[in-house]
Structures are given as structure tokens and as C-alpha cells.
Design brief:
- By secondary structure, this protein is α/β, with parallel strands linked by helices.
- It has one domain (9-413): Alpha-Beta Barrel (TIM Barrel), CATH 3.20.20.80.
- It is built from 15 helices and 15 strands.
- The chain has helices spanning 16-19, 27-32, 47-61, 72-75, 84-99, 115-119, 127-139, 155-170, 181-184, 199-219, 240-256, 299-311, 327-346, 388-398, 408-413, and strands at residues 9-13, 65-69, 76-78, 81-82, 103-109, 148-153, 223-230, 233-235, 263-268, 272-275, 278-279, 315-320, 351-357, 375-377, 384-386.
- Strands 1-2-5-6-7-9-12-13 form an 8-stranded parallel β-barrel, surrounded by 7 helices.
- The chain is globular.
Length: 415
């Protein structure tokens, strides 16, 4: 595999709410106690206090980058009131990453927002761009030395959440959809199809991204972009026309909004069929992941090509991974995904890095059971237990991808 350049970013990603713990001023913290069936994040992985340990695991494995977020809900607890202590905390995290030889990729918003922002309408109001740009301006004061900034994680999923929240207010969303331990192992949990976000729900999110981008460009030297949830849509028989509509509303609207950015973040896990009626659920299958999605490592190459074509920018893979309790399967999935990614790079697509989701087994937005991490975490003691996949990915990074030439059976035994 010759496509990976020496300065290619190899690492893993996390988000604040999923790993830090006790994010009590966020809308997600409030939401957890209201939706039936949703588990609580609580202390999460206590990464608020243990971030050096987490970063050291990455660096010691041979990886050179870490994508993590700074939490808006902690930094700005009331409109216009910013915490110097929290800004300094996140600056210490950046300094720790740099000290350990990790290039930080910083996310400003990863699904969770301040409660006050949600209470005044959040992303559904024209105020959103002004509010987010002011936060980005203040955040820029601690972002010196950061090479890449992701303004908003998965804006298309944020727009979809606006639909879900409206359904909940109408009483149409009675229970949080979550797999159970009993059905994870056999892949029989059928994931319901996601609702396609409405274009009007993305309007103010796009405005906020562009406003934040300008603030960050004035005040930092970082590359600026955002990360889109890419579904690798394909047409089922008779679904060709509907596919075009779904692709535009779910992805292309947000990829086109990145055309003035320095990079586009690609987040890819599986494929999704579209028929004449819309999104097709993944049918139950023994190979399905813990969250009911199909095992499709080839989705990464598909989404990277499409994102590069539509956005017209370099690509940074900001998330890719698999929910599985079997770490050998995680290695196999990632091995296949990276081999396919290398062919895309060799074909001329400008891909700057690969950041695995996730560094840690963490809180997956309402449930704890799905395990995506390169590192297991004891939820009582917070002990970190690196999996073989962490060492394996580190070996790939150290070889600049050359170790991917090894047969899959050999890849599984490495690390």
C-alpha cells in the first residue's frame, strides 16, 4: 500500500459527552432523563480527568493524531458567559496531545449543546449562526498549534434530530430505539431506517458553520472543515429516482456547503439501500453489527470518493469503525476498509488522514452496549484495557500502511 504519505494522520476519535462524564449543562444530559428506554451517560469514561492516559495509549501504540472535542456546554454555561477555567482545561488537553506527539483534530460541536441554546430553539432558529460564531471566536483563543478544526460533527444527523425532536413533541416517539445484550451476538436486531432530514432543518446549521469558519480563519492558522455522516447509498430495484432525492437531502446539501472549506470530514460505517419508498432497513443477518447495520467495510472507499467529488476538497476520515464485541472482527473490518481506502488514494483522491471510531468503548447516545473502541473501559474502576486492535492499527501507522499488504489472517494476529 503506497498511497499513504509520511504526513498522513493516523489516530482515533472521541467526543466530549460520550467520554468525559457529568456534562450536566448540556441538552443531552437533560434529554437522557426524559426519553423512556434511554440509558444515562453518568461518569461516562471519566476522560475529563483521564485524558492524558487516553492520549498516552494512542501515542504509545504508534499513532500520531487524536480527534477530540471541546464542550460548548461546559465553556459557555449562560449566553455570553465563558469559563476561563474550562478554556484552560481544554488548552491543557491540546498541550498534552502536542507533548505526546499527537496532532490534535479539534471538534467544536459533537451533538451536545448548552441547555440555554436548546431552550431558545437551538439549531432551528436564525440565532444559531450568531451564537455558534461567538463561541467559535472565544474558542479560537485556545486553538493555537491545532492543525485541523471540525466545526460541527454530522450536521445532517443534527438536522435529522430536529425531526425526531418534533416527533417526540407530537407524541410520535414513545421509546428510545436501543439494541439489547441478548440480540447483539446473533445480529437479529433490525435497525429502523433513519428519517431523511428536511433541507429546511439544515439551513441554520449551514449558516452557523460558515459563520464559525470565518471566525476561525481570522483567528487561527488551522485547516477548517466539518464532518458529514456518509451513508454510501445504493439504489434497490426501482429506487434510482428516489436515491437522487435522498442523497441530496441527506448528504449532498452538506457536502456542497463544504466547498469553501479546507477539508471535508468523512464518517462512514456501512451502506444503505434506497427503494421507491425511501430508506430500506438492514435485514437481520448473522454478519450484522451490534447496532443492526450491515458489515460493509467497502463503504469507506465509496463515501470518500463521493465526498471528494461533491465537496471538491481534500478528505479527512474523521470516523470509521464497527460495533462488535469481537476484536478480531474489528481488525478484519478495518483491514478491509483501509485496503480499499488505499486504492482510492492511489487513484488520485487527496485523503489526509484516518481517525478510527472510537478510541474507547463509550456512551453511544442512549446506550452502553455497542462497543466501537480500540480500548475497553471498566465502567466502575475506569481501568483502560487496550485491545489487540489498538496495537494493530499502531503497526499499520508505523509502516505507513505497508503492513496492509499482509494477508488478513496475518493482520488479525498482529498487535
Amino acid at each position: 500500500m503506497s498511497g499513504f504519505k509520511p504526513d498522513f494522520l493516523w489516530g482515533a476519535s472521541t467526543s466530549p459527552h460520550q467520554v468525559e462524564g457529568n456534562n450536566v449543562n448540556s441538552d443531552w444530559w437533560a434529554r437522557e432523563g426524559l426519553i423512556p428506554g434511554m440509558q444515562l451517560s453518568g461518569d461516562a469514561n471519566d476522560s475529563y480527568h483521564r485524558y492524558r492516559e487516553d492520549m498516552s495509549l494512542l501515542a504509545d501504540a504508534g499513532l500520531n493524531s487524536y480527534r477530540f472535542g471541546i464542550e460548548w456546554a461546559r465553556i459557555e454555561t449562560r449566553p455570553g458567559v465563558f469559563s476561563s477555567a474550562l478554556l484552560k482545561h481544554y488548552r491543557r488537553m491540546i498541550d498534552t496531545a502536542l507533548e505526546l506527539g499527537l496532532k490534535p483534530v479539534i471538534t467544536l460541536h459533537h451533538f451536545s449543546s448548552p441547555r440555554w441554546f436548546a431552550d431558545e430553539g437551538g439549531w432551528s432558529t436564525p440565532k444559531a449562526a450568531e451564537r455558534f460564531a461567538e463561541y467559535a471566536k472565544v474558542a479560537s483563543t485556545i486553538l493555537g498549534g491545532v492543525g485541523h478544526i471540525v466545526t460541527i460533527n454530522e450536521p445532517n444527523m443534527l438536522a435529522m434530530m430536529l425531526n425526531l425532536e418534533a416527533a417526540a413533541r407530537r407524541g410520535d416517539l414513545d421509546e428510545w430505539q436501543s439494541p439489547t445484550i441478548e440480540n447483539q451476538g446473533v445480529g437479529q436486531w433490525e435497525q429502523p431506517p433513519l428519517p431523511v432530514p428536511l433541507p429546511e432543518d439544515g439551513k441554520h446549521i449551514i449558516e452557523a458553520h460558515h459563520a464559525a469558519r470565518e471566525e476561525l480563519r481570522q483567528n487561527t492558522d488551522a485547516q477548517i472543515g466539518w464532518s458529514v455522516a456518509n451513508q454510501a447509498f445504493t439504489a434497490a430495484p426501482g429506487g434510482e429516482e428516489r436515491l437522487r432525492d435522498v442523497q441530496w437531502a441527506f448528504e449532498d446539501l452538506y457536502l456542497e456547503a463544504a466547498r469553501g472549506d479546507d477539508f471535508i470530514g468523512v464518517q462512514s460505517y456501512t451502506t444503505q439501500q434506497v427503494d421507491a419508498d425511501g430508506l430500506v432497513p438492514h435485514p437481520p443477518h448473522p454478519d450484522n453489527t451490534m447496532i443492526g447495520t450491515a458489515y460493509r467495510p467497502d463503504a469507506l472507499a465509496m463515501t470518500v470518493r463521493r465526498a471528494a467529488d461533491v465537496a471538491g476538497t481534500p478528505v479527512l476520515v474523521t470516523e470509521n469503525g464497527i460495533a462488535t464485541p469481537d476484536d478480531e472482527r474489528r481488525i478484519a473490518y478495518t483491514h478491509e476498509a483501509l485496503r480499499a481506502l488505499s486504492t482510492v488514494i492511489e487513484a488520485g483522491v487527496d485523503v489526509r488522514g484516518y481517525l478510527h471510531w472510537s478510541l474507547l468503548d463509550n456512551y453511544e447516545w442512549g446506550h452502553w452496549e455497542p462497543t466501537f473502541g480500540l480500548v475497553a473501559v471498566d465502567r466502575d474502576t475506569f481501568e483502560r484495557r487496550p485491545k489487540r486492535s489498538l496495537g494493530w492499527l499502531g503497526a499499520v501507522a508505523r509502516s505507513h500502511g505497508a503492513s496492509l499488504n499482509a494477508p488478513l489472517a496475518q493482520a488479525v494476529t498482529q498487535g
